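Reminder to self: tokens first, then the designed residues, so the page reads top to bottom the way the pipeline ran.
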């Protein structure tokens, strides 16, 4: 699988990364996650991205692939150890405890990338949370620090100049970041990590979902991309290659619980970027249809 430099970090990252949310939230087992991750690593993937708030995700990753620590770069996130309604931003001691728990669960003495998980511009501007992140890096608990989020908050994070990377939503249903946010990050030498590149494959759902990703389902109903009328697998390939074709994106994070999916994803990634005409048509359709309030999904 092709690898890119992750901005100024210099980390060599595979164009596809494993997203740990799904195995944590959907009851992955040690056996299933072990098969999934070891198969992905064997297929050439070398990026694992998780967070403490992803339920059992960190534990499962640590239990199954810690013995292969040299084979992958490890990303995690902090900020929501007590849930999204009680964030950790107002107590640096909680953030420190969160980081230490992550290291313990992941069975490692350091992360390659430690990310703030969707904190607000107001918190960023206060400064103490950024100071905590820098101290974690100085202490050797992480090699690099990043911000994971979207919209005005993410733009603020980029503008601080404090972070080595930006993780943000980039997909056929989430293109606002392509116009300003990603270019701003690239201009500052930040590595760009694309989250939710497949928009939860919402085009395969006939009925309106009762979940946070309902916005993607509704957007797709309006966008009516022609390629979504074909086989689901073909649409997945176009959607994933679209995200990987966005200038500045180094790696796209994809979650799944099906081990064989990684071999399929690897074959898709090996096809390289979309042809320019297809890429431009998707961008044009977005620009024609998307209203200003179709902002990035956090």
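Designed residues (298 positions):
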């Amino acid at each position: 699988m092709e690898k890119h430099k992750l901005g100024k970090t210099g980390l060599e990252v595979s164009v596809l990364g494993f997203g740990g949310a799904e195995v944590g939230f959907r009851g992955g087992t040690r056996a299933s996650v072990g098969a999934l991750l070891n198969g992905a690593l064997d297929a050439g993937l070398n990026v694992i991205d998780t967070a403490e708030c992803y339920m059992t995700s960190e534990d499962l990753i640590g239990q199954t692939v810690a013995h292969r620590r040299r084979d992958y770069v490890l990303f995690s996130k902090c900020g929501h150890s007590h849930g999204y309604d009680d964030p950790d931003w107002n107590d640096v001691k909680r953030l420190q405890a969160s980081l230490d728990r992550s290291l313990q669960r992941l069975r490692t003495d350091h992360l390659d990338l430690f990310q703030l998980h969707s904190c607000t511009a107001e918190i960023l501007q206060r400064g103490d949370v950024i100071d905590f992140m820098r101290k974690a890096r100085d202490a050797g608990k992480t090699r690099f620090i990043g911000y994971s989020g979207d919209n005005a908050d993410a733009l603020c994070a980029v503008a601080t100049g404090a972070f080595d990377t930006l993780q943000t939503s980039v997909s056929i249903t989430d293109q606002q970041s392509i116009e300003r946010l990603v270019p701003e990050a690239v201009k500052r030498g930040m590595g760009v990590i694309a989250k939710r590149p497949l928009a939860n494959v919402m085009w395969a759902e006939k009925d309106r979902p009762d979940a946070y990703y309902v916005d993607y389902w509704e957007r797709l109903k309006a966008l009516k991309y022609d390629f979504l009328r074909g086989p689901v697998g073909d649409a997945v390939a176009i959607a994933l290659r679209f995200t990987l074709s966005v200038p500045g994106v180094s790696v796209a994070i994809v979650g799944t619980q099906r081990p064989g999916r990684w071999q399929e994803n690897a074959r898709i990634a090996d096809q390289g970027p979309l042809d320019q005409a297809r890429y431009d048509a998707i961008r044009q359709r977005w620009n024609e249809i998307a209203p200003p309030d179709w902002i990035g999904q956090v």
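The mean pLDDT is 94.
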